[in-house]
Amino acid sequence: MVISMIAGTMFLVWLGELITERGLGNGISLIIFGGIVARFPQVIGQSFLNTNQGAGILLLAVFTFGVIYAIVLFTEAQRRVPVQYGRSVFRGGRMQRQSGSTFLPLRVNSAGMIPLIFAFSIVILPGTIASYFRNPLSDGFVSSLDPSAFPYWALVFVLVVIFTFFYTLVTFQQQDLAGNLQRNGGFIPGIRPGEPTREYLTRVLVRITWGGALFLGIVAILPFFVTYATDVRSLTLSSTSLLIMVGVALDTMRQLEAQLLMRNYEGFIR
């Protein structure tokens, strides 16, 4: 069984690399996207057959579309920091100074779905370990971290917010945007290059990450409240699946748009 699972995983990874090389977007993400979407008809059909709660299923569908709209909104939201570049051009026997302006996009949700994966993995681990020890203390611990209990989702919300800040700040430190701006002759108007620029960008990033972190936390715990609000226990939302679907769809659309622009570009020589 283990050998067959490893072989199947390696085959899917190989297919994903082929899709990435010869297709559009990230191949592994597209395979995961296809697996999530392929389960929807079966789950929805079973829910209609096993329950007579048409109103609850309709309300759940409305919630789902609302969550998808919010995910797209926060995924595309960004803070544009103005940046100016100055360069020297030798023209007419003398050196002239030219300047250009652009912006530095800082995304509100730059962590994506990674905080949710970290949070759910950490929350599940203690309960799994405690389930191997049969005593009143471990049984109480397991019951408190059951997915149907409120402490489980409260801990998920806190961990998602923490991991969003952690992942965003670590990624920002690795990019070294302030150093790259200084090396390329760019600067933010009113901010000195170097360390002041780094502090300013960090302050702006922390401020906008609060919105992304709280949004991801709400999306993570939303299935718990939506399930109880609609009273449809056989059909539940999966926040991680929705984030993966929306992220892959947006990335594929960008890839298609880039390919269309490249193929329709005529160039200078006809």
TrEMBL record:
Q: GO cellular component terms?
A: membrane
GO BP annotations, alphabetical order: protein transport
The UniProt entry lists the main location of this chain as membrane
- The source's superkingdom equals Eukaryota
What subcellular locations does the record give? Answer: Membrane
Keyword set, alphabetical order: Membrane, Protein transport, Translocation, Transmembrane, Transmembrane helix, Transport
Q: Give the residue spans that cross the bilayer.
A: 28-49, 55-74, 104-130, 150-170, 208-229
Topological type in the membrane: Multi-pass membrane protein
Q: Which InterPro entries match?
A: SecY (IPR026593), SecY/SEC61-alpha (IPR002208), SecY_CS (IPR030659), SecY_dom_sf (IPR023201)
Pfam family for this entry, one: SecY
Similarity section? Belongs to the SecY/SEC61-alpha family.
Q: What is this protein called?
A: Protein translocase subunit SecY
Natural source organism: Geodia barretti
